[in-house]
Amino acid sequence: MNDRISRVKNGKFFIKRDILLYAVILIAVIAAVTVLILAQDKGELEKIEIYYDKILIYVYDNSLKNGIITEAGKKYVTEKSEGNELRVVVTVPEGYNVIVFDGEGAKVTEADCSVRADCVNFSGKITKSGDAIFCVPHSLSVVGVGTEGEEVLL
Question: Are 145 and 47 in contact (CB under 8 A)?
Answer without folding.
Answer: yes
